[in-house]
Amino acid sequence: FPPPEINDSEGHPSSSHQTLKGTSKWATSLESLLEDPEGVKRFREFLKKEFSEENVLFWLACEEFKKTQGKKQMQEKAKEIYMTFLSSKASSQVNVEGQSRLSETILETPHPLMFQKLQDQIFNLMKYDSYSRFLKSDIFLNHKKSEEQEENSPEAQTAAKRASRIYNT
């Protein structure tokens, strides 16, 4: 029989592979960073300073678009994404390869993955360019330092001692 599951004080399974949080999780991959709202917020802050926030905004808009239901809503969202990020007159134009650009005619018959190729291009641009700089940025390093200070605070240590007493009885 497997040993009984050990739970932490909130009833969540406790394991030696405890799920990473915050900056530790963000540093594992761009995907992990983009799954965390706080990570997205910090990454946007960083990209804004680099004048490339439109990349993550486009990526997020595409993720949201994939969840859109109904042809009319899809048409509206597709047009909004096109006008904001892809049109030659776009206010926050993303830098995608010319031949990958969509023509406005495709907006009439939208489908959930119509922006996938462009989204992948932008993801790779962020992954191999901005993301590595973000991990070395003051925004990331300062957030990491404040997390570490919180973990080493007397309150956090007291909770850890209480938890170890519970498990070691």
Automatic annotation (TrEMBL):
GO aspect biological process, one term: regulation of G protein-coupled receptor signaling pathway
InterPro entries: RGS, RGS10/12/14-like, RGS10_RGS, RGS_sf, RGS_subdom1/3, RGS_subdomain_2
This protein's record includes keyword Isomerase: no
Protein name (record): RGS10 protein
Organism: Ptilorrhoa leucosticta
Coiled coil ranges: none
Residues annotated as signal peptide: none
Pfam families membership: RGS
Disordered: region residues: 1-23, 145-169
SMART domains: RGS
Keyword ATP-binding: no
Keywords, alphabetical: GTPase activation
